[in-house]
Amino acid sequence: MRIVIAEDDALLREGLALLLRAEGLDVVATAGEPDGFLAAVDEHRPDVAIVDVRMPPTHTDEGVRAAVEARHRQPELAVLVLSAYVEQAFATELLAGGARRLGYLLKERVGRVEEFLGALHRVADGGTAIDPEVVAQLLTRSRPDAGLDRLSAREREVLALMAEGLGNTAIAGRLVVTDGAVHKHIRSIFAKLDLPPTDATDRRVSAVLRYLDAVRR
């Protein structure tokens, strides 16, 4: 896995590089500002970019905009966005697009090495990785939805973990239940949200987006 890191905090940038290299991953370049990051993407054609939301010169959304541009230049690039705290607009936009190979984590998650590496690999493998705290805040701010109101407490837990990008086995491990139980809960979620099987859409993504639709309104 070839990785480019875009982070203006030099200590965090170098710490991430050391951590990833110690895990046997290939950090091909690091950058402290958007132009350097985009130049590195053009030169090295990485598999994954780890990008801070807020970067110079204004420290607002330069990182996100650079990540979008990087994906435009290299559509198969996986992007893991890091943020110091939950920024609802960015998180909502990230999931609402339904795009694969994208992640959004709080920086504090980096210190939980196994979780961080798991999210990185999930994104690199084509999945989605959303920080549990991001999911929790989005769900808390969501408006009522008649379909969502029909879900049981356990089904809501399962849906929240689906929103983090976890597969059935990982959800079972987190909730300490069997894979079969998780599969049953997911079938029930799809039924209560009126999501029949179809080749046109991914029902897992559609279920998660029901939350985000309420957030955006």
UniProtKB/TrEMBL annotation:
Residues 2-122 form the Response regulatory domain. One of its GO terms (biological process) is phosphorelay signal transduction system. One of its GO terms (molecular function) is DNA binding. The modification 4-aspartylphosphate is found at D52. The keyword Phosphoprotein applies. Keywords: DNA-binding, Phosphoprotein, Transcription, Transcription regulation. InterPro entries: CheY-like_superfamily (IPR011006), NreC/VraR/RcsB-like_REC (IPR058245), Sig_transdc_resp-reg_receiver (IPR001789), Tscrpt_reg_LuxR_C (IPR000792), WalR-like (IPR039420). Pfam families: GerE, Response_reg. Residues 144-217 form the HTH luxR-type domain. PANTHER family: TRANSCRIPTIONAL REGULATORY PROTEIN NARL-RELATED (PTHR43214:SF24), TWO-COMPONENT RESPONSE REGULATOR (PTHR43214). This is Two component transcriptional regulator, LuxR family. It comes from Modestobacter roseus.
